[in-house]
Write a structure and sequence with these properties.
13 helices, alpha/beta, Spore Coat Polysaccharide Biosynthesis Protein SpsA, Chain A, 14% strand, 5-stranded mixed beta sheet, 3-stranded mixed beta sheet
């Protein structure tokens, strides 16, 4: 593997049943902070082993997997695996930000993980590999594979407030039309017709309205982390100091936006698709996508309107067992 294509994977995980973690979280989670931090954000779908089976089978080329937890691990995990790096929050997150119960406090500091590659792929634990991949699915010519997705953001709901914060940050540093003018081929290449239409509508404006981030894996470069921390230290620092997610923070999606607006990306269509588990009772699309391996990546996203958790959990595990019936080398 070429040096420029040395790629690591990062996946964070939390055991929401751990009494030590629950006690620590309860001490820091005030009643005014419950919005956006409900139990749904931490509950376990008991499918992490299939994440490792997918990587073992479909990404044998990956150098290391950084498994990030708050000193937790599933009992079945083989932490002696040569590719597995079990990373605790205390190993890389500055002490002043700990403990943290916000994914942003974790994600904004991933570049600090000792030994992590300059280019790495970030997975949430609900994003699974379900078909053969290659390094060029994630990075080409040392640049993250991605595609701009211009859209309009509406001020509805808790998370959209945070996305507004992200967009305001990005607009302090970039002119959208100038970014497109500098790299027109990158912005146009691989765009579907709908994307080209949105470029025509929004692309001649100075300010970005919104760059929609797909809820699948994300390719990141450490140099982008360094650039953002240098340019926007105060807001990122404040975000990391927050023990839980609030409306005042900015998310690590800014890293992706910065890479795109600065032209540091390689245009390529997404290799996966996101599904919300709450719709599974009404549509079999997610199960069919998984069963027929229609893409290389699938996200099975939990939401607060999920009303059939146990039913959908068993449906998903059943399909994963069909796809990955055997243990991976990461399992004891």
């Amino acid at each position: 593997m070429k040096e420029t294509q040395v790629i690591d994977f990062v996946v964070p995980w939390v055991d929401d049943t751990d009494p030590v973690w629950r006690k620590k979280r309860a001490e820091h989670l005030g009643i005014t902070e419950l919005e956006g931090n409900s139990e749904v954000r931490y509950r376990d779908w008991d499918n992490l082993r299939y994440w490792f089976r997918g990587v073992d089978k479909y990404a044998p080329w990956v150098r290391n997997i950084y498994f990030v937890t708050d000193n937790q691990k599933p009992e079945w995990l083989n932490t002696d695996h040569p590719k597995l790096k079990w990373i605790k929050h205390t190993d890389f997150i500055p002490e002043e930000y700990l403990p943290t119960f916000s994914c942003q406090g974790i994600e904004w500091n991933l570049h600090r993980i000792p030994g992590i590659s300059d280019n790495f792929v970030f997975f949430n634990d609900d994003v699974f590999m379900i078909n053969k991949t290659k390094p060029e699915d994630f990075f080409v010519n040392n640049q993250p594979c991605d595609l701009p997705r211009l859209a309009v953001l509406y001020p509805i709901g808790f998370f959209n407030h945070i996305l507004f914060n992200n967009t305001e940050l990005i607009n302090r540093h970039f002119s959208l039309k100038e970014c497109i003018r500098k790299n027109p081929k990158k912005w146009i290449k691989s765009q579907p017709l709908s994307g080209l239409v949105k470029l025509a509508i929004y692309g001649n404006r100075d300010h970005l309205s919104y760059n929609m981030t797909p809820h699948i894996q994300l390719s990141y470069s450490k140099k982008t982390y360094d650039a953002l921390w240098k340019a926007e230290y105060d807001i990122i620092h404040a975000t990391c100091l927050s023990k839980v997610r609030t409306k005042e923070v900015v998310t690590s999606y800014c890293i992706r936006d910065w890479q795109i607006l600065s032209g540091e990306f390689y245009p390529k269509k997404p290799i996966g698709k996101c599904f919300h588990t709450s719709t599974m009772s009404h549509s079999n699309e997610a199960i069919e996508y998984l069963r027929k391996q229609k893409g290389k990546i699938i996200c099975l996203n939990d939401t607060e309107d999920e009303t059939d958790f146990e039913l959908h959990k068993q449906m998903i595990i059943k399909e994963f067992e069909k796809l990955f019936p055997n243990k991976s080398s990461f399992e004891l």
